[in-house]
């Protein structure tokens, strides 16, 4: 009796690349990593990365983490993130990604909601002591048994992964490599509140394939990822695209414009994964002359309702692919092929990858719901995670099954072109700097700032907006924001010019 062939996982894809080219360059750290984390940048071949992944996986197993348990990860966009995620998969664990800008209360809630058994972080990131943040959150999470960190000056009780990563160990665990197994938990905010969103390896790979095929990333590509990896789109656009192309992944921790340009030119990167606002900004600054090696630019839109009104793409040597992100529900991409560089029309129905190639594999389906909102269906879309609440127990009518996710983005069909126009984000939810907040939470924070104060979103060319608190003076705003538990990197307190005058 033969066992059916299991579908691939991300670790399977890594091992395929390892077997084919063990000495090829696999991972490259940001050039300014010393400033970001206090550690020197690294460059690893597939063979070197494999040894470190095995060492980390052995550490997780020896720490007593059982198969299929959840390990939370809060790391910058450096080699340590890629190694930790792949090591967790090799040890049969499920990774929960924690955004860097979260408050301690959000970290604690995420750890409790996922019953995470361990958390991995960095001692310092951009001057913020994340090791203390992780320890404090872990103390409030009953399920946490292990707290691990990279970097120096780790607090007492936190295990050092810098030591574990270089310690060879024969410890291993037999893990069934099946792409249908749970791989990732990311977190979304909808009108119904905070929502963990689980995904299997196949969902991650489907997201990476949708971007790789639509943007025509070549095999052996050198991909620079400048998008935060703490989401489904972040992992799909970095780890999944890298492993599917079998090339080199160059990491950039957002954001330093001069370092980004230097990395692209020194590594001769041909593919850039970045926030769409950044991609369009580089185009305005003469991308062709300053970064001549680029051939593919993938711009990820956290605000998909703004794609239609965005500037035209002018660079001729590189193509731009717009990737529409709908929180953690799913994504789809559309390459700009018009002569004037305007965004492609998005029509309802199944869409292939590449989109314009007849007979291409179906990446997903776009539909207009009866509510006048955009719906997504396909292999990367976790329908169960967004299922509506069950009817009351006294209801005599069962709710019909749903095989799509309603993104709650308002949309309509253009009668002239037949294309879908996304007109507004979900009501009750506000996106600030790539993070979603409930509008009622922002109103409560504004109230806590005091009379005559204001909590607002200021325009930012990279992230869209950033959160700012206005009070009579900086000290009052900062004290109020600190009382709310906001991460210092998330907010900006500024002086009211009218009162200063």
From TrEMBL:
InterPro entries: AMP-dep_synth/lig_dom, ANL_N_sf
Pfam families referenced in this protein's UniProt entry, alphabetically: AMP-binding
Keywords: Ligase
Top-level taxon: Bacteria
Domain AMP-dependent synthetase/ligase: 14-298
One BP annotation, GO: fatty acid metabolic process
A molecular function GO annotation: medium-chain fatty acid-CoA ligase activity
PANTHER family registered for this protein in UniProt: ACYL-COA SYNTHETASE, MEDIUM-CHAIN ACYL-COA LIGASE ACSF2, MITOCHONDRIAL
Protein family: Belongs to the ATP-dependent AMP-binding enzyme family.
Protein name: Acyl--CoA ligase
């Amino acid at each position: 009796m033969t066992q059916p062939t299991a579908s691939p996982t991300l670790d399977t894809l890594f091992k395929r690349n390892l077997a084919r080219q063990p000495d090829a360059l696999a991972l490259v750290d940001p050039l300014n990593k010393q400033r970001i984390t206090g550690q020197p940048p690294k460059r690893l071949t597939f063979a070197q990365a494999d040894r470190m992944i095995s060492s980390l996986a052995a550490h997780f197993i020896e720490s007593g983490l059982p198969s299929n348990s959840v390990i939370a990860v809060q790391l910058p966009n450096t080699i340590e993130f890629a190694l930790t995620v792949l090591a967790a998969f090799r040890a049969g664990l499920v990774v929960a990604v924690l955004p860097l800008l979260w408050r301690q209360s959000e970290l604690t809630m995420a750890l409790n909601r996922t019953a995470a058994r361990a958390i991995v972080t960095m001692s310092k990131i951009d001057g913020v002591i994340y090791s203390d943040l992780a320890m404090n959150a872990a103390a409030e999470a009953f399920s946490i048994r292990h707290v691990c960190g990279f970097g120096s000056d780790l607090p007492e009780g936190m295990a050092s992964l810098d030591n574990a990563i270089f310690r060879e160990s024969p410890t291993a665990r037999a893990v069934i490599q099946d792409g249908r197994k749970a791989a990732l938990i990311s977190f979304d905010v909808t009108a119904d509140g905070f929502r963990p969103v689980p995904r299997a390896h196949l969902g991650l790979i489907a997201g990476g394939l949708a971007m790789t095929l639509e943007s025509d990333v070549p095999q052996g590509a050198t991909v620079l990822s400048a998008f935060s990896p703490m989401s489904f789109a972040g992992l799909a656009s970095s780890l999944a695209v890298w492993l599917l192309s079998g090339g080199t992944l160059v990491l950039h921790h957002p954001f330093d414009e001069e370092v980004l340009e230097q990395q692209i030119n020194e590594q001769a990167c041909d593919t850039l994964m970045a926030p769409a606002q950044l991609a369009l900004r580089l185009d305005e600054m003469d991308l062709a002359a300053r970064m001549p090696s680029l051939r593919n630019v993938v711009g990820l839109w956290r605000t998909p309702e703004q794609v239609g009104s965005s500037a035209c793409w002018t660079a001729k040597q590189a193509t731009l692919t717009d990737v529409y992100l709908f929180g953690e529900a799913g994504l789809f991409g559309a390459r700009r092929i018009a002569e004037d560089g305007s965004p492609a029309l998005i029509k309802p129905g199944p869409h292939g990858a590449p989109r314009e190639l007849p007979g291409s594999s179906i990446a997903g389906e776009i539909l207009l719901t009866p509510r006048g909102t955009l719906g997504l269906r396909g292999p990367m879309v976790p329908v169960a995670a967004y299922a509506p609440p069950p009817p009351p127990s006294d209801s005599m009518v069962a709710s019909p099954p749903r095989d799509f996710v309603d993104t709650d983005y308002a949309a309509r069909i253009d009668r002239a072109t037949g294309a879908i126009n996304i007109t507004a984000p979900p009501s009750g939810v506000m996106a600030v700097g790539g993070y979603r907040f409930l509008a009622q939470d922002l109103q409560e924070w504004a109230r806590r700032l005091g009379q005559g104060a204001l909590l607002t979103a200021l325009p930012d060319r990279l992230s869209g907006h950033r959160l700012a608190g206005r009070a009579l003076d900086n000290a009052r705003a900062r004290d109020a924001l600190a009382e709310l538990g906001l991460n210092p990197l998330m907010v900006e307190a500024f002086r009211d010019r009218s009162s200063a005058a």
